[in-house]
Amino acid sequence: NIAGARQNSASWTDANGDYWFFGGQGRDKNGVIGNLNDLWKYNKTNKEWIWVSGSDIINQNGVYGTMGVAASANVPGARTNSVTWTDASGNLWLHGGQGRDRNGSSGYLNDLWKYNPTTNLWTWMKGSEFIRQGSVYGTKGTPSLNNTPSARAYSVTWTDANGDLWLFGGYGYDQSGVTLRYLNDLWKYNVSTN
To answer: What is the rounded distance in angstroms from the CA atom of residue 155 to the CA atom of residue 142?
Structure first.
C-alpha cells in the first residue's frame, strides 16, 4: 500500500506515534489529479501504510449522515487545506477546508468531523453540510450549541490542557457568508459539551 502523490492534506499523530493523513490535492488510483478524501495511517512499528477510509478516486461528495451519530457510511468530502486536532481520547478531528459538500458543490466548508480510530467511524459533529456558510458568533465568551465558525481554510489550531480544541482565523467567509476575507476570530470547542 502507498498513498498517491499529494499536497495540502490534513494530518495527525496518534497516541502511539503513528502518522495519519486525510485528503488533499493529488493523484487517485488512476493517476487523475483532484481533491481526495482518503484516510491513511502509517504504522511506525510495521513500517506499513494502511488505507483506512474514503474513496480511491477524486472529487467525492461528503456523506454526512445524522449530526452527532457515528456510522460506517459517513465520510468527509474530498478537500484540501483543512485543519486538525487530536483530543485526549485519541480521536482525530477535522474542520473545513476547500472541497465538496453533500451535493458535490465545491467551495469553502465549515463542517467539523470526529474520527474514532478504535471504531473506524466518522461522525459529523458541527457545521453545515453545504459550502459558503457564514459564522454564527452569538455572544463573545458565552458557549452556545448554535455558535459555529464560518466556512474557511488555512486556520491555525491547537489543543489546550483541558482537551478543548482552539481555532484562529484563516481565509474564508465573514458572518454573512457572502464575502471571502482573511479572518482573525478566535474559537474554542468544548469536546465534552459539544
So the answer is: 22
